[in-house]
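Xyloglucan endotransglucosylase/hydrolase, Digitaria exilis. Tokens?
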Amino acid sequence: MYHHGFFSASIKLPSDYTAGVVVAFYTSNGDVFEKRHDELDFEFLGNIRGKPWRVQTNLYGNGSVGRGREERYVLPFDPTTEFHRYSILWTSASVAFYVDDVPVREVRRCPAMAGDFPSKPMSLYATVWDASTWATSGGRYRVNYRYGPFVASFTDLALLGCRVAGAGDGDDDEHNIRMVAGGGRCGDGAAEEEEKLRASEVAVMTVEKQQAMRRFREQNMVYSYCYDTRRYPAALPECDVVESERRRFKDSGHLRFALRRRAPRRGSSSSSSRAAAAAGRARSAAAAAAASSRAAAVAAKKQQAAAEMVLVARE
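Tokens:
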């Protein structure tokens, strides 16, 4: 388990008809705190052949599942033909989500959030599951197991953070995982470890990153709880309401007009996506070079391995 950190993976989603199939990359402590769990989510919401994929981000703190903080975006590339990097940054002050090293969402902690902000140690998970009741077009399209098995591939995992003492003492947790430099165990120096994380290149929100995040949201965001006044007549305290952004959304929080863009071609992605992915790979390589000698050796030995998760029909 980790008490704050940066969690990242390159993921390729299942292709063809995947309505109702959710692929999730997330942190949680639900197995330890069943009624007071914290969670940070990337959820890929299934797809109908020929349509762009949608991804949802969310966070919970202290079991606050009744106050969902969902945002949804249309991915500007085909995530089934190539690996793309998805990352979660979690500190005591904020949470940020990244797609191909571009920040797409930042939630800054404020006192009024109280226990709704994730604050307890969490583990990293990846799952593929049947969410027919809600995932694709609000449950209109369900999982069709004739198109299975539904395979999601994960590789190039990277962890940077403060590991809780006593968690993961064996070597198995380093298989296929790069323990990036600075990722030490928590203890008396936990505050110092987090300060290192907050000062690292991945965590510093530069002007360039803020501008890239604004562009992504303008071009790809299709739902935000901050603009869903039917659900939350008064915006939740951490919402940074941007008036120019708010005007684009209905009182349901959904985009007023459908995004107009060409569907991504299979087997190719936009030049900007390729450039972002290349930049991400370069930064990942630089981080790996700075890792400890043991972690670097493990990564060198295991970097060709990729984990696959499969959803199949039960007999």
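Residues 155 and 280 are 14 Å apart (CA to CA).
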